Amino acid sequence: MAQQFKKAASCSICLRYFEDPVKLRCSFTCCRRCLPALPTAPDGEGLLCSNCSRVSRKEDIKPHRVLCSLASKIKEMEPQLTSLLQMDPRIRKFQVDVTLDLDTAHDYLVISEDLRRVRIGGDSQERPAHPGRFSDSPCVLGAPRFTSGRHYWEVDVAGSRTWSVGLCREAASRQGDVVLSDERGFWTVICSGGRFVAGTQHPRGLLVQPRLRRLGLFLDVDVGTLSFYHVADGSHVFTFPGVPAAEPLRPFLGPAGSSEDGESWLAICPCAPVPAGLGSLGRGPGLESGDEEALSSGSRAPGPGLESGGGEGDREALSSGSRTRAPCARAPLWPRARPVAAAEGGAPARPPE
């Protein structure tokens, strides 16, 4: 994620942090020193934008002071950003053995015998009726229940292009159409066709590396935060603050879509051996400066006016509404989405297409 901040503050010509950035007539921005690299207009008067070929005369080229200040701050903060936005390997000491709870699984979900993998099937599994089962949305909860302490687990998402993974309140409604929103008791990251969204009250588009294969989740019940990490490179994906501990919390998985070979699995990863020599991660004396903020901060990614996954991607990722609906499987299998009354905040939004 730190690389995303750096990219936003870098010149597309020299690939370095902006220095004395200037803006052309078409809003293309580059360093002033990079202007000679742009092609000259056919009449020799002015420069051609490398993106749109619009001509900018000398009087059209203006300094971009806001971007200059922003780039300077990001360059100064790059070491701190890299450190804060990386997963601390010591959180692996809080690994928990998570399995899927069959009594909560929607009847069209196929669950593996070891209770770690789930996908959508084409037929009913004919499971017995249970009051805790998801009735319409293809979702399932995990065990154990979390009531205190810190917990870490990983989910392999490489086998599916559409999914939702996160945390759920024990008492969150599982009947009818499930709306994935933190105000409804679901703290999730949703992926649809390679685009990522955090299920906040106003869904937030996220900047995530497209090669995401394994998602790490770190829950600190006592502090009230749930953080998501890209396990391969340790980068921070998103943090939900204010997760209440008034009732038990449970892992949540929502597979969606079905590949041609029917193998679109989401898989909970078994606990991995913890490398020897990892230091403690406590809250008492000896806690290193920044540990608590890095792992359990109520804030999202720090930065001068930027948030992890924020910016233009927020508006582009979800422009159709203010809620994210649990992704459905195949249209013939599931009833149409139940509209949310206007008094409840408007209709649910579909995952980004």
Automatic annotation (TrEMBL):
Stretches for region Disordered: 282-353
Keywords: Metal-binding, Zinc, Zinc-finger
Bias-annotated ranges (Low complexity): 335-353
Signal peptide segment: none
PROSITE patterns per record: B302_SPRY (PS50188)
One Pfam assignment: RDM
Domain of life of the native organism: Eukaryota
Domain B30.2/SPRY residue range list: 78-271
Matching InterPro entries: B30.2/SPRY, B30.2/SPRY_sf, Butyrophylin_SPRY, ConA-like_dom_sf, PRY, RDM_domain_RFPL, SPRY/PRY_RFPL, SPRY_dom
Protein name: B30.2/SPRY domain-containing protein
Species annotation: Pipistrellus nathusii (Nathusius' pipistrelle)
Organism phylogeny: Eukaryota, Metazoa, Chordata, Craniata, Vertebrata
